[in-house]
Amino acid sequence: MLFRKNRKRFHEQIQLNTQQEITGQKGLLSSDLDENLHVFHSIYQDCMDVVFRTFLIGGQTRAVLIFIEGLSNLEEVDDNVLAPLASETEGKVRPRELLEKKIHISKMKEVKTVTECIEYISVGFPVLLVEQEMVGLALGLCKWEKRSIEEPQAESVVRGPREGFVEALHVNTSLLRRKIKSPDLKMKSRKIGRYTDTHVVIAYMKGLADQTLIEEVENRLQRIDIDSVLESGYIEELIEDNPYSPFPQLINTERPDVAAANLLEGRVVILVDGTPFVLIAPISFFSLLQSPEDYYQRFLISSAIRLLRFVFMLMSLLLPSLYVAVLTYHQEMVPTALLISMFSSRETVPFPALVEALMMEITFEALREAGVRLPKQVGAAVSIVGALIVGQAAVQAGLVSAPMVIFVAITGVSSFMVPHYTQGIALRMLRFPIMLLAGSLGLLGIMLGVILIVVHLCGLRSFGEPYLSPIAPMKKNELKDSLIRAPWWGMNKRPHLTGEYNPYRQAPGQKPNPGKGDES
Amino acid sequence: MIEKGKISAFQMALMIEPTVVATAVLVVPSVTAKVAGRDMWISPIFGSLVGFFSLFIVYQLHKHFPEKSIIQYSGDIIGRIPGKIIGLIYLFFLLHSSGIITREYADFIIAAFLPRTPMFVVMGGMILVCAFTVLSGLEVLGRAAQVFVPIFMSTPLLFILLIPDLKLENIVPIMEHGMMPSILGAVIPQGWLSEVSLISMFLPFLKDREKGGKWGIISVIVIILHLVIINIVCLLLYGESVTSYAFPVLTAFRYISVATFFEHLEAVVVIIWVMGAFIKISVFYYVLVLGTAQWLNLSDYRPIVFPIGFLVCLVCIWAAANGQELGRFLRTISPFYIPSIMTFIPMLLLLIAIIKKKMRNKRQPVPTNP
Questions:
Q1: Residue B89, CB half-sphere, CA atoms under 13 Å: how many?
Q2: A275, A232 Cβ separation under 8 angstroms
Q3: What average pLDDT does the structure give for chain B?
Q4: Which chain A residues have a beta carbon less than 8 Å from that of B117?
């Protein structure tokens, strides 16, 4: 009941706000410059960064330039707008003629309403209003301070392009366009966020991406009504299929090459202004295990590395639980010599294996989190504390056993082998309930936990695509790019679920065969 | 339809394989060896005839009523009230056998793994996991089968490590006393194989119906191969003394020892077997829940998943006082009990359906007897 009431009140509030906006700002520009100025002054009251520059065109006609300091390129404004207009001698001129004759700027828009003006001013376009004119001019002279293109920190590769997305949206779209030159790369823009008015771009390849998928993505974005979008994470949480699943249903990447590769497999990329992380949908469990480098290294090596990654992913989920289960319930599984050495090191440990494992794992998680958040200067202190106190002193004090420390370390390393951070987090979280199950039911408990996880994954979907495909449901053709990576000359077809419109990505029979090539 | 999900024929085959093998694999070698002796490896082949027969009947019925399950078309064939009675018998059988299977699972886990854990915990944990699966629907069950069953089916590969211990002379002379012992030995495996007729509940939900029959046959063949391989390995390993083991297959894995490090694999094997048992219990549980919903004409089966799970738990406890009694039930009663419901009732339904169709074709407007 309470909830519903709140919602009603919320809707009333919204209506009120929008009404105010309509009456206050949607009006047309008037021909009286003073009236216009008055409107803008009242809108930009207490905004010290908004500049109103009044001047005379050719010494007669009054004009005003409104812009926000720091968003517009002032040098260009001086050279290309103020100087030619001030030296104008023809007297009274219409903005249309000004546009054609005097101002030489490639990007220029006519604006008719106050709202339009505000939109342009807030993205950095100086708006020029002239006396006796009902039409203003938005001049494309914005210059935002932005980070230069750098190598992405979170996804580094040994071999592969070194550029990463930045916070500025148009830089990101240009990076994508530079990779895919075909005009089939479509980018649809929309604005989300009542206050932030953030640009969100849906990029896809026409003819490769499923039309229903694009519509679905657009519908889900359409439904979003939020006051701010500061990172693509906001969007991700509002459009995923199962919000309670620990597994991510969209991946984020900082790399243009990853985004381009996914576009070419028929997926949709969502770019959000203000963050270097773009979202990719739909994905499957196995796309989370893929690193961009898999496609750049030779296929035998990358297949081997993928298998290794898969094994270690399982280990990051199960290793501490296996240790607990084997030590508590199934000692007979361990070869005798190893068992003796393990038990002799546990002799002084006062805790049961489960408590020991939980303690160490939680400590490890805390150390990891501390290491991420700390300023770099004190990072060394954490690693010293972690390595010496937890690793060495705890064993010497007899609080934990040495094998436990080894297992925790291996688990930690293996959880970092998952190339996508978000999935690493999911598995790290799931490790704890499985440890509890292992402590209470042994290997059977682990198995039940694994069955539950697999059943959950079987039911999970990412924008309609089954999460465990191509294993379940089985897609024979796509197995080539799941746990292993087939050579490029063997992957003639695109993935079935995302690329069925245009199934062939290359001509068949490109397996290099130098002997035959010479004969023909 | 109550179930909206669709599965492929391949997924159905993968679901049926452990539905027969998972519990059979535990005791088949010792119980067939009691009757068939050295010829026990032939018995599953004879038993398969029942499997093929049930498959044939169910598939023919499916052709007559492509959109319906046995609970639904029994009413069409013999009238509403008798149909409901048949459906009720069928459902009670499913409830009882779900309980029995869960009991077999729990008994085995307790004997092999967790001797001091109360049965309720072992059984309840599994039923809970299965309930979660059944709630997620047929599609999820099919996909889970696709993940787990290939692993479950690969366990016989581990027997390769046993090759040094196998004595080929245990198998000869073949058919020393004629065919009879091996045919009699088939009496017990045929009971399990008649469970193949559970596919009658899955056939209406196939994406590729034309392949249903083909994959049904393939799954029966794989089941036989699985059982024959297990019987042969047990025979070659133990000779005729296989009868003295409670769980001969599990014991066989204890023999594996490679380089004195790679040994005591039985815990791993039990874990893999749990995957098969999970699929088997889930399949029975799902069929039971779906059948009940169809019998009661419910619009959704989800609300009855947990109540029925509770019933399965109860039946599981009541099914037998102890392992001995359960074993006796499996050896003496179930070979007749299971086929009489799983094969005999569908067979009667098919006969009546065919006769009715013939009669209708003979004299056009006929008032059919209820």
A1: 15
A2: yes
A3: 88
A4: 441
At B107, list the tokens.
């008994």
User: Region A297-325: what's the mean pLDDT?
Assistant: 92
What's the whole-model pTM score?
A: 0.89
Q: Which chain A residues have a beta carbon less than 8 Å from that of B267?
A: 330, 332-333, 443
pLDDT of A37 over the 60 cut: yes
Contact between A194 and A18 (Cβ < 8 Å): no
> Hey, how many other C-beta atoms are within 10 angstroms of the C-beta on B116?
5
At position B237, the amino acid (one-letter code) is: L
State whether residue B10 sits within 8 Å of chain A by CB: yes
Rounded to an integer, the average pLDDT of A179-192 is 92
Amino acid occupying residue B360: R
Using the Cα atoms of residue A235, residue A237, residue A242 and residue A246 in order, give the sign of their dihedral: positive
- B144 and A441: CB-CB below 8 Å? no
Judged against a pLDDT cut of 70, whether residue B363 lies above it is answered with no
Whether the Cβ atoms of residue B23 and residue B277 lie closer than 8 Å to each other: yes
CB neighbours of A156 closer than 8 A, spacing ≥ 6? none
Written as one letter, the residue type at A129 is L
Contact at CB, B114 and A329, closer than 8 angstroms: yes
Q: For residue A23, what pLDDT is reported?
A: 46
pLDDT over 90, % of chain A: 30
- Smallest CA-to-CA distance from B283 within B57, B103, B13 is with B13
Q: How far is CA B286 from CA A359, B70, B93, B132, B304, in A?
A: 40, 14, 14, 11, 11
Q: Which amino acid is at A43?
A: I
Of B85, B170, B148, B134, which is closest to residue B304 (Cα–Cα)?
B134
Which of B11, B137, B267 is closest, CB to CB, to A443?
B267
Task: Return the number of CB contacts < 8 Å for A and B.
Answer: 83
A-chain residues near B125 (CB < 8 A): 441, 444-445, 448
What is the nearest CA distance from A514 to chain B, expressed in angstroms? 39
Q: Where are the domains of chain A?
A: 28-34+48-145, 169-283, 311-466
Cα separation values, B327 from A321, B5, B188, B324, B334, Å = 34, 37, 12, 5, 10
Q: Is the pLDDT of residue B286 over 90?
A: yes
Confidence of residue A520 (pLDDT cuts 50, 70, 90): very low
Which residue, B9, B46, B30, B19, is CA-closest to B224? B46
**CA dihedral of B204, B205, B208, B210, whole degrees rounded to 10:** -10
User: Which residues fall within 8 angstroms of residue A74, CB to CB, at 6 or more apart?
Assistant: none
Residue B290 above 90 pLDDT?
yes
Environment class of residue A179 by beta-carbon count within 10 Å: exposed (0-12), middle (13-18) or buried (19+)?
Answer: middle
* Residue from the list A335, A445, A446 with its beta carbon closest to the beta carbon of B261: A335
Neighbouring C-beta atoms of residue B102, cutoff 10 Å: 29
- Which residues, in sequence order, are bridge partners of residue A252? A279
Residue A233 clears pLDDT 70, i.e. is over it: yes
pLDDT score at A22: 45
Query: What pLDDT was estimated at residue B312?
Result: 94
Contact at CB, A442 and B113, closer than 8 angstroms:
yes
Range in A378-382, B125-129, B290-294 the model is least confident about: A378-382
Among B119, B121, B143, B302, the residue to mutate for chain A (most A Cβ within 10 A): B143
**Predicted pLDDT at A498:** 62
Distance of alpha carbon A31 from its chain centroid, rounded? 45
From the centroid of its chain, how far is CA B295?
A: 22
Q: Where are the domains of chain B?
A: 9-357
Task: Show the tokens assigned to A484.
Answer: 């292993």
Q: What are phi and psi of A27, to 5 degrees?
A: -60, 155
Structural fold of domain B9-357: Amino acid/polyamine transporter I (1.20.1740)
Whether the predicted pLDDT of B165 surpasses 60:
yes
